[in-house]
Structure formats: structure tokens, C-alpha cells
Design a protein that fits this description.
The protein is of the alpha+beta class. The protein folds into three domains: 58 residues, no CATH class; 140 residues, Herpesvirus/Caudovirus protease domain (Serine Protease, Human Cytomegalovirus Protease, Chain A, Alpha-Beta Barrel), CATH 3.20.16.10; 59 residues, no CATH class. The protein has eleven helices and ten strands. Helix 8 crosses helix 9 and helix 10 runs antiparallel to helix 11. It is elongated and about 95 Å long.
Amino acid sequence: MPLPKPRLGESRNDFMGRCLQDDKVVSEFASNKQRFAVCSTQYEGSKMTDEVIEEQFEDLEQTEQKLEDGTLNVSFELKTYGEEEEKGVFTGYGSIFGNKDLGNDIVLEGAFARSIGRKGAKSVKFLYQHKQDEPIGVFDELKEDDKGLKVKGRLAMGTQRGREVYELMKMGAIDGLSIGYRVDEKGYDYDKRRRRRMLKSVDLMEISAVTFPMNPRARVESVKGAERTVREWEELLRDVGSLSRTEAKAAASAVSKALEQRDAVKEEQPEVLEAMLRFTNILKS
């Protein structure tokens, strides 16, 4: 069996780790120093002098000793994942199908399909209050469902405006979404009697986070890192639980109050807390 040789593109560290544990190297060379010299020569060829091999082996021995003593200092970059990565992420609806907005337009199902398919989510700009000079993030997902244009966006948390909008979204101070689009005469039908446009196909240019949306039902539904508001619970219970408006309001109020009290009962009534958490997790799923 021949001695190992470096593979194409293999780094010195990777090769040395493989070579030093090779069965032939271990069986034919008794000491670590001999194995190190052989593997170094295999990698570097005739460029390796005895002095260089000796110096590098001493460095290796010192490192091994530090590992045994538990005192090795290593430089590294720590990257955190989880909640920090989720900050600034939100979901909602940029437009709702079938209901008249404040400009007397009604968006029909399928109106965005062609535009989204051609552009992709990230090509649709995410703006603040429709200001073209204030982009505040990107969209990771845009898709139509039976309700409307569902969006998943990410605020630019490295910018001041992005952080501001994130805090305002969490508070519910900014919870509206509004679309900016272009439409030609073939993209809509006009109902003269009711004086409204029926939008069949539009070129979606941007979606904005706004205080007052043109379509009052186009809203931010959830923001990562924020508790749901009573209104959000109400809408969720109506959509998922098929409750009436009155039933959803009562249930939403109860859930919200229960969540507010969860810290208070944590120590005194753990079984109550557990039941509350089970219930809210079912609703959130």
C-alpha cells in the first residue's frame, strides 16, 4: 500500500490530518515525529528542509500539550442563529381579493400571478409610506391564496428606518400594507353603474408599510418577536376557528388576558400556565 498523497485542491491541514492517521504511516513509522516528517514531505516534496520540519513538529507538540491541559486559545467568529435572525420578519396581506378599497377598485383573484411569476419576490420593492427614496427591506415570499396577496417580508434591521418600522409594527402603530402597481386598459374592466374598476391583471411595483392602507383589510398579520394583539387574535380565530365576529372578539379578549397573566401564574399555578400554553400553541399552529 503506497503512502498517501495530496488530493487535488486539498489543504495542507486536511492532508496532514488524513496522512497522520493513515494505516500504512502508523504501522511503518513508530514515532509521531517520524510520521509528521513523512507526511510533510509527501505534501511539500523536496521543498521541506529538516529545520522546517523540526520547527513545525515542535509547534504541533505544543498545541497537543495545550489541548491536554485544556488551555488552547482559539480565534473564532461566533454567529448566533434563531430569534436574532428572525427579527424584522413579518407576514401579512398586501391586497385582499373581492372587496372594494377606498379608491373604488376591486382586485380579482389572479391579478398578481403573472407579475409575481415574471419578477419574483425580491424585485417587488418594500417601501415606507410609498416613498420611493425610502426602501425599508425586502420580500422573501409573495404568493396568491384564496384570500389575497400573502407576503412574507424582512425589514432592514441595520438601518434606522427599518428598526423604527419594526418597533412600530410590533406595537401595532403601523399595521397596514398597500400596493403600488401599473395597469393598462386590458388589465381591468370598468363597472359604469357602480363606478368601480375590477382589476384582473396588474404589474406589481411595490408594497408599502403604511399607517392608513387604501384597502383597510390589507394588514400585517404577525411580526416576529411581538405578541399578537387582540385584533390579530380575533382575525385568527375567525379565519381558523370559523367563529362569528362576536364569538371571535370574546375569545380573543380571553386569550389576550390569559397571556398577560401567564408570568403571574408561573410560580403559583404551573398547571394553569401549562394549559394556557397548550391552548395558545394550538391556535398559533
